[in-house]
Amino acid sequence: MRSKIKFPLKLKSVLIIIVLSAVLCTVSIFMSALRFSRMNEENFKNQASDLALTASFTVDGDAMKAVRDKIFEVFAAIPEDEIVLSDDWGSDAFNAQLDRFASIMDMPEFKEVHEQLSKTQTAGISTLSSIYSVDYYFGASKPYAMYLVDAAEEDACPPGVIDSAEEADWEHAEKHESMEPYITNYETYGWLVTATAPVYNSSGEYVGVVGVDLDMTEIKANETAFIFELAIMLFAVTAVICIITLVIIDFTVIRPINKLSDVASDYIGDNEDKKKFADVDIKRADEIGNLSGAMVKMEHDIEKYIEDITSMVSEKERLSAELGVATRIQADMLPKDFPIRDDVELYAAMTPAKEVGGDFYDFFFVDDDHLALVMADVAGKGIPAALFCVVAKAIIRDKVMLGGDPASILYDVNNLLCRDNGAGLFITVWLGILDLKTGIVDYVNAGHEYPVISVHDKSVDVVERENCPPLAAVEDTEFTNERIQLEKDDNLFLYTDGVPEAKAADGSRFGIERLKKLLEKDKDRSPEKVITDLAGEVKAFQPEGDPFDDVTLMSVVWKGARK
Amino acid sequence: MKIEKANDGTVMTVELIGEVDASNASKIEADLLNEIVGVKDLTFDLAELEYISSTGLRILLLMQKMMKAQGSMTIKNVRKDVMDIFRVAGFVRLLNIV
């Protein structure tokens, strides 16, 4: 089951790198442009200031004063409301105004100053646009800027060109100091830097300023070209770096991770033919190498676990199969050829709580007239109890066949069992020998449940005598023989504690009284019917699932001596 | 099933409360085997014991065997029901019941 990858690592890294590079490029271009432009402007301003200062010293102050005074004189004669400013250049009123000043251009002083300024103008400074002298007239309601001499080669401003003075300009002029150079960009003139320097006459009197305009149009165009080239170069270099970075990331990070991711997806998928981490083992001394190594190890471990679990499961299956065989062997060891004779009829059943049980029953003819009956219960369940059963059953049978009364037989059996009983198990045994001619049962009850006799046509009695200790508990235990006289058709019923102690879901126990009642119900039943009915009742009494204890039942009916 | 123990090193009293059967016998056995090392006088107080199965009897027998080697074991306050079980199991002759 592979989850869909919406944004692969490759796409993410490409996007991140492109965005970051674009931002970086834009910022650096912007910063360079700003810095470069400021530097150029600073240079131009300094150049303009220097040039204005130099020009101011080449101008004859006395001549300029004469020109200025003459212009002011003409200007003062014009009523203020008739003044035409340079904004109306070319208009009739403007031209008429110029005519008033025309004579000034013939003044030798005007010519002298013009010549001096022209020297600078024609000196070969390529960026010099115009050089001129100006003064401010403060005699009217507001200051006016008056062009005195203009040495520009084209469109020179003759005397009579008047501008309303900006405050920033005339404030400097009033204090007789240089103005801070400034940059303008008018459509008609383009980029210009303007700087001024004051001019003094021979007696140290301030007579106006020399102004210089430097043309920045070319340098601005250069600036744009430079930024353009820079941008192209930067983008190109960045693109190359991006591609190199992406290729490196692709090979060192993305591809190995994709490989691992593919194998991991494959690993959890349902594919039969899985890719393996071991095949893409990335041997590198970095985190990806580590990751790959860890995945290879994990894969190896999981495979090993699966192998272990498989072998454990098969081992468990083997054990359970063997237990099944053991169950069969145990069942087969219990005699099944139940006698149905004129003098005796017998039936028995054993239901283990686990695969193998700790109960057993046994019966066999010692001779023609004597039937040995054994009912036994090892304290415990499962395999240890079952193994103990096998030993006990064999020994008891052996000893009974050798002859003797039950007490002496069990004395020997007990000592044999005590000898090799490290596990501390003990076994309760009811051993009886039924004389088929007389109906007398000689028996020993070694810690076992009391037998019940269902007397035909009469009561059901529990035969309570003092019980002897169980076998395998204490060495050299003396056992006591007991005797019961069976009447014709009496049913001797033997069982293990799994019957009275069977526990219902509510905690109540099956008990002896219930057992007696069930035995009383129908006295004409055959031993087989009695046992199967009772086994069914006990099974039904307990909750489903794991039965509490082994349940073993035996029913013997003595039908009187043989004829 | 509950088990209460008082052990001062040499004298130990064990109270078994409720029912002892195959479902809890192995736990009780492990519990007691750990504790009785060095005990000289072991007493089982069965005043609150309602039922004991053959697997439970096996524990008493095992304790009896071990105590025989290192001291003595006494069983007291046995209820009638449990005494009947002891009687059927032939334990009356094996155990020191007071």
Write the layout of secondary structure elements.
The complex is a heterodimer of chains A (563) and B (98).
Chain A: H1 9-58, H2 61-76, H3 92-101, H4 108-121, E1 128-137, E2 144-150, E3 162-164, H5 167-174, E4 182-186, E5 190-200, E6 206-215, H6 217-268, H7 287-333, E7 344-351, E8 359-367, E9 370-378, H8 382-402, H9 406-419, E10 427-435, E11 440-446, E12 452-454, E13 460-462, E14 482-485, E15 490-495, H10 511-520, H11 527-541, E16 551-558
Antiparallel strand pairs in A: 1-2, 1-6, 2-3, 4-5, 5-6, 7-16, 8-9, 9-10, 10-11, 11-14, 12-13, 12-15, 15-16
Chain B: E1 2-7, E2 11-20, H1 22-35, E3 41-45, E4 49-52, H2 54-70, E5 72-76, H3 80-88
Helix pairs in contact in B: 1-2
What does this structure look like?
The complex is a heterodimer of chains A (563) and B (98). Chain A has eleven helices and 16 strands. With 563 residues, chain A is an alpha+beta fold. Chain A folds into two domains: 36-215, 2-Layer Sandwich (Beta-Lactamase), CATH 3.30.450; 335-558, 4-Layer Sandwich (Phosphatase 2c, domain 1). Chain A has a six-stranded antiparallel β-sheet. A five-stranded antiparallel β-sheet of chain A has the order 7-16-15-12-13, with helices on one face. A five-stranded antiparallel β-sheet of chain A has the order 8-9-10-11-14, covered by helices on one side. Chain A is rod-shaped and about 185 Å long. The mean pLDDT of chain B is 89. Chain B has one domain (2-88): Transcription Regulator spoIIAA (2-Layer Sandwich). The two termini of chain B are 23 Å apart. Chain B has helices spanning 22-35, 54-70, 80-88; strands spanning 2-7, 11-20, 41-45, 49-52, 72-76. Chain B is of the alpha/beta class and 98 residues long. Chain B is built from three helices and five strands, in the order ββαββαβα. Chain B is globular. In chain B, strands 1, 2, 3, 4 and 5 form a five-stranded mixed β-sheet that branches. In chain B, 38% of the residues are buried. The interface between A and B is medium-sized, with 26 and 19 residues.
